[in-house]
Amino acid sequence: MCVKGILKIIFLVIFALNLMAAGSAAANVLSVSNDTGQPADFTNIQAAVAAANPGDKIVVKPGIYEENIVINKNISIVSESGNFSDTIVRAADVSQDIFSIWANDVSIKGLSISGSNSAGIHVFGFIDCLIENNKLFNNSCGIDLYMMSSGNKLDNNEISNCLTGISLGGSLYNNLSNNLISNCSKGISFFDSPNNFLEDNTISQNTEGVFLTGESNSNTLRGNTVILNEKSGLHIYETSNNLIYNNCFNNTVNVKSEMVSGTNIWNTTKTEGTNIAGGPYLGGNLWEIPDGTIYPEKARDIDLDGIFDSQYNIEDTQFIDYLPLNEFEPVVITVNNSTGPVADFTSIQAAIDNALPGDTILIFPGIYEENINVYVKNLTLTSQSSLHGDTSGNTSEDTIIKSASSLNDVFYVIADGVTIRGLNIIGSVDYPSSGIHLNGVKYCNIEGNQLSNNYIDPTSDIFSGNSSSILSNSGAATGSGIRLDSSSNNLLDNNIVSGNEISIFLHNSSENTLLNNSVSGSNYGIWVDSSSNNTLEGNILSNNKIGAYLKVSSGNVLNNSKVSGSTNSGINLWDSVGNTLSNSTASKNSVSIVLRNSSTNLLSNNTVLDSNYGLWLYSSSNDNKLDDNRALDNQIGVYLKESNGNVLTDNTALNSTVSGISVWDSAENTLINNEASNNYVSIYLQNSSENAFSNNAAFGSNYGMWIAFCSNNSLSDNNVSNNLFGFYLKNSSDNRLSGNQANSNSRHGIYLGSSMNNILNSNRVTSNSEYGLFLLDSGNSSIYNNYFNNVNNIYLQGSNAGTSLNTTLTPAKNIVDGTYLGGNFWATPNGDGFSQTHEDKNGDGICDAAYTVNTEGIDYLPLADSRITI
Fold this sequence. Notes:
By secondary structure, the protein is mostly beta strands.
């Protein structure tokens, strides 16, 4: 019996035994970290493997792990970050494999694996394993599939600096795709390994690229780039019936052949489809050598189908590629339906219907009334005018594409790599149609176009509680300027879009870039819906109902944009998490930036001005970070409502007619190092609890900090000076004011009205015009270790029963550097305050007499002036 038949029988036996051995259980997730700062279930991977049950997932946190790991059950091991650069596994014993796999259905993802004189990953005769997105380097063998390891998938791995990148020994029916293999002695080596599939791998700068030997028959090599390998791109030794097509070979020796026992196949049947050289047909392979020579030399491609008209007798072998690929040379196709040069076609659609991938369609000035389907990959459609000006899109007025039917897109793009540049695209188009519609595509460039519609129908106010959107409206609504559906990695650059229902609309579309577009006069300037990881950079959005709208979208970056004149909101996030809004200016909007039910976003270095609301977070917009933003000349600068756990740092709120920073119905927010000045109320808390305010500054306002109906807040080390009132507490209890400065306010430094059980300690309250501290019906408060130096330090009105003006005498440094905590330091600018005039005979820093304000206010342990002694 032949070896191939024996291998198949062995495979079936092992497959059956492995299936019998497989079990099932509810999957668990186990975590691994050897960093004490990252708590986890285990500190090493092997311990997690030992504890895991079949089907469990082991998540490895970033770090460096020195181990040799044996896997004997079907589990998955993945890096937490998904990034092999920060999750590194090195061989503890360099003579052993780093990962030894002795089970079916094992997955290894997202790891950096190095340092073994054996293999980085070694599979010993098992099936259906998945090895993807790993980096393997400095191993004897990167990945080794050994003896009947079958049905495994190796995808998107980077392998370098190994003797062998990937080795298959006696293994079959495996899939190797999208791997990058370089700087190895052998890139991919097959020994007695038939029926495997190699697709879209890049194998470069190895000694030998791909090595097939023994009974390595009936493999398929397709779509691979095999280039710049030193001795040979493909070395075949005693193998046959391999199908090798649509690969790019560019090596000094592309194929080396020895003792070939049968026939290998070097092309498939000619079939429509973009080939590896960019041509429109699949056939054979692209043959080049590094000096630029393309084989077969001097052959022609008369019909321009991307396939040479002559077969290629592969150098120094008996092999023949009957359909060798030609490096595709794109052409320019002209369109003109007006006066001027005679063109190839009078309609854009006709030009597309006769174009091949990579061609350019050059459109001369005129009015083209069409609805156009773009289905040719890597096609460029550009106005002739744009070739004679800059690329900013200002040369498109004379090349007008007008919708022939409002029920269809003007441009409907379903091919990757399409460029549309320098066109004036005019509606009207009705929902769901668009001026330019990208559907399920990537790598398209939409540059320097003008798009406009002539109908605007305002929608309902999203703040009214009506959550319906224009997508649920009838067909009477207008469509979009540019629309992306399920499309990624596209560029929208320097377009001018106006007068649409939605000017630019992204739906289920990720990793696109919107750069320097100008959007105006629409209900929605830019709408990002259910889309992630897009970049919006340098866009100008003016006079829309909503400037930029992110809904159910995450990981997007909106940077360096200008948003103005929005009747509803400038930048609006709804149900969106993990986005970054930075370095943008939003002015003259109803609300400049608003977050609704949107958490863990970062708002950094933005300027919001001349609006009703500058920054507004509401309806469970939690755990956001607002850092170094400026809110200027708004009614309310920064407004938090029903939102918890946010952190505001180094923000500025100036010249607000109502309040600089307001926190309503919110808890556990942190405000640090913010400045709020020249507002009616600089910092305002209403019905909020367990917030922390520290090192904030509030100057030049009627109220520095106004706290109403609030409890359990901490206000520490803030400076509320030069206001009408410094701190103003009303109907608020159980708050703590500590280490603050309340100086030079034109009425009171600290005012408590109907506010019980508050603690005031270690505050400096000086030079306030009426009273340093005013208590109205605010009993049971604890007021100690404060420094008062005002003409009138304290006034108690109404009932303030239970208020204490000192704490228990305690050894500790006090506010005037004495050695005991007790009461407060009572001074006046004229030097005749109680603490300044009463003796401390024993030198303990406490006056010998109590300070009586009234019957409800007695400081039994007033702090003494160190200069007043016996």
